[in-house]
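Structure ticket #2291
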Amino acid sequence: MPMTEQATGAPHPQPRPRSGGHHSAPEHVTGAQSLIRSLEEVGADTVFGIPGGAILPAYDPLMDSQRVRHVLVRHEQGAGHAATGYAQATGRVGVCMATSGPGATNLVTPIADAHMDSVPMVAITGQVASKAIGTDAFQEADIVGITMPITKHNFLVTKAEEIPRTIAEAFHIASTGRPGPVLVDIAKDALQAQTVFSWPPVMDLPGYRPVTKPHAKQIREAAKLITAARRPVLYVGGGVLKAQATAELKVLAELTGAPVTTTLMALGAFPDSHPLHVGMPGMHGAVTAVTALQKADLIVALGARFDDRVTGKLDSFAPYAKIVHADIDPAEIGKNRVADVPIVGDAREVIADLVQAVQREHSEGHRGDYTAWWNDLNRWRETYPLGYDLPENGSLSPQQVIERIGRLAPEGTIFAAGVGQHQMWAAHFIEYDKPRTWLNSGGAGTMGYAVPAAMGAKAGAPDRTVWAVDGDGCFQMTNQELTTCALNNIPIKVAIINNGALGMVRQWQTLFYNQRYSNTVLHSGPEGPGGSAKQAGAGTRVPDFVKLAEAMGCYAIRCESPEDLDKVIEEANSVNDRPVVVDFIVHEDAMVWPMVAAGTSNDEIMAARDVRPDFGDSEDD
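Resolution: structure written out below.
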């Protein structure tokens, strides 16, 4: 299952190493030249990285490549998240490069992030010379050992002749089966040694045979359950996007008439605007989506993993539901919730086969009647819609800011979000009707993801508008990559949702720590032992994001009034020759609702503060 879908949804075949056919004539090269030639042949067109001693031999031939563009980032974490954003926006393998030791360890966070979210990425690192490995040489770190738990696979290369095969295998592993990050660590002497390059190499991956075709018997069983159910839900995860199965999903949903809920990682896999869509599930999911899963008698999980943010307290999750669980990774099936019908396979093939099996059930007179179910779902939708209150003091509402950015964005805009309150508001109040238009750090929840991920997305899809919706806390972790954007003609747009605090942590302090705001204020120094501070005024903005952005070569604007909101957003959309940063000064007390408190049952969802939905008892039949 190669990751080949372009941001437009059209097929974009990733060049793949061949095991036979035409071979290139052998070339006498260095290991470093062999590395760059290998990257060219696997179809890598963009590499994000920073040179350093151990990887330096690779940077010399990279300068001469006409097929691989290198983007010089300001921090290796930025390189890793940019590779992820590139991969999520284009469906192709993202590539980042760093030197040994601290250069490599700075990639650990984005590698872990890509691993949690099943993103196809290849990280190439330099290593000290092979004879120095294990001696605590200067800038040595065992990056293979460090990243073993957070990569799909990794390699240590100590011989120049192994480089082409290793690169071919790394791209194949990263992009097939369940996608994920692969690390290739190359000793400096292997890069410097003379070797012979020819393409394609013969890959040697015994035991790596991802199952893509589902078992027919399991498909038939799933179809029977779907047509026999009274309260089914299609629980759609990010695997549907990875498998390019969004068209098939729409067919299945409309064929069955079952409600669809899309996880945080799957937004855009099924149109938000579709009448069958009931929202996002989870800790901050829509009331209807969370409750649909709780009341369901059948959950059909497609490329989803029953993670804790969706299930809440696991032993109380969906107590009435039988489970059909389809996933490319057999290790996910039954990991958190036992499956009544386990299906191992590629989501696209699974859903296509399910469509045929359900059609056969229909032809035999077996058709589910979900009328009563939809009466309940529609009542919940009408009673507990997503919404927000405008601040009484006339200041900017963060939800309104994000909603207007979504409404005024050009067609096909890609949105990347950081992590926290602004991430949840961006998930709720922007409408995602197309795949690969929503990028975020779901599994790891990495603050600092948005700006470099947006940079990678824009590099991979230069004709698309890319907005990064970021918090003032997240923004201060990786904003230096705006310099990279300015110098490399990568004109992203950044909305800083500036409430002067670590917003989501502050929300928890409000709800669960008696409003003791310990070390969550960002805009000024502490006042007294509690570390609280007054709301930011014009004189206490440290840093001044407008000045900071201008210093990094960006067009910068500040917006503090609802009356100026649309005008400022339209101004930001009109500037396309450099990065744009908008500092939106928003009310600090806004909260994310709905919410299921950590460790509690999804039955205890709160629609708003002190508002618990009343579903009655009739749905529990």
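Closing remark: The longest strand covers residues 121-127.
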